[in-house]
Design brief:
- This protein has helices spanning 3-23, 31-52, 60-83.
- 80% of the residues lie in helices and 0% in strands.
- 35% of the residues are buried.
Length: 84
Amino acid sequence: MGIESILVFLIVGAIAGWLAGLIVSGFGFGLIGNIVVGIVGAFIAGYLFPAMGVSLGSGIIAAILHATIGAVILLVLIKVIKRA
C-alpha cells in the first residue's frame, strides 16, 4: 500500500466519521476520532453490504457513502449500548 492509498484511506475515514457524527446527534469527535469511526464504519459496511447483496458502486464518493453508512450503524449501536 502506497502513501497515496493511506492518505486517501485517512481522508475517507475522516469525512465519513464527520458525516456520521452529524447524522447521529450527540456524537462529536476530533479529527482522530472521526478517522477511527469512519474506518471502523467502513469495515462494518464492508462486511454487511456483501452479505446483504448491496453494492454502491466504486469510486471515492461510493467509498465515502459506504463508510458513512457503516459509521452511522456503529454510532447507533454505541448509543443503544450506552442507554442499556
